[in-house]
Amino acid sequence: MLYSFCQLFLLFILYSIIGYIVEVICVSFIEKKIVFNRGYLIGPYIPVYGVGAMLMIFLLDKYKNDLIVLFIMGVIICTTLEYFTSLLMEKLFKLRWWDYSDKKFNINGRVCLENGVLFGLGGVIIIKIINPYFEMFISFIPKIITIIIGIILLLIFVADFVESTYITFRLKINVSKYINKDATREIKKEVFAALHKNTTLTNRLLNAFPHITHTASNRFNEFKKIIIKAKKEVKKMKTKKKKHK
Question: Is 46 in the same domain as 116?
Answer without folding.
Answer: yes
